[in-house]
Amino acid sequence: MASTACGIDIGGSGVKAAVVDLETGEFTTERIRIETPKPATPEAVAEVCRQLLEQLEVGPDIAVGVAVPAPVIHGVVPFMANLDPAWAGMNVDELMEKHLGRPVVTLNDADAAGIAEVAYGAAKDVQGTVIVTTQGTGIGSAIIVDGVLVPNTELGHLEIDGYDAEKRASAGQKTLQDLSWKKWAKRLQRYYSHVEMLFSPDLFVVGGGVSKKHEKFMPLLELKTPMVPAVLFNTAGIVGAAYHAARKAQG
Ligand code: BGC
Hints:
The chain is of the alpha/beta class and 251 residues long. Helix content is 33%, strand content 24%.
């Protein structure tokens, strides 16, 4: 595998990118960020990705991976929960290749985070079932069994008590509804105990910016499954996208 690759992570508030050292999972450039355009149409976001690559001066030999906040099934996004609905049905591989003028590998953002946590972080060498959830505008999920990812699991959209789970229990909703840690933890308890009942995981890894403040909510949860913060906090999307692109380029 190549020694470096570039990862881009498309989020609800910002699009972030960096070049990654694939040996260590650390950045070899600074991490740069451009606000997510409003409306976040596919073309507007792809243009931001182009600008990020230009700013990072990513050469043509470096593989590029793009993490998208939606399932990506053989390059196609079937629905988009938190960006412009125009993404639905779009082939994002083709969209990105057109705008970036080079081959691009796309994948779900939580799957990217899961891949990164397996390669460099909290899920490294963990046997059994690991569920990585990313807490942001939505809730992303990656299920990894003995190091192998089951892609596009979308556990943020489990329907619990009549609600789309991420509309109750995401970190984005905590901010939006100005919930205290205690109130949010109640919602997390309902969410993670349901996921636990369905999948009997061996480990939960919680990522996203809020995982930096894990001591505020993790001690409030009562689960049978151990839960740890992501090692890569909110950089896992970039790192996983880069890793995945390099692995694909290798064939
Ligand atoms: C999307 C997922 C994504 C998650 C985190 C959800 O709304 O459906 O695909 O992984 O948000 O961005």
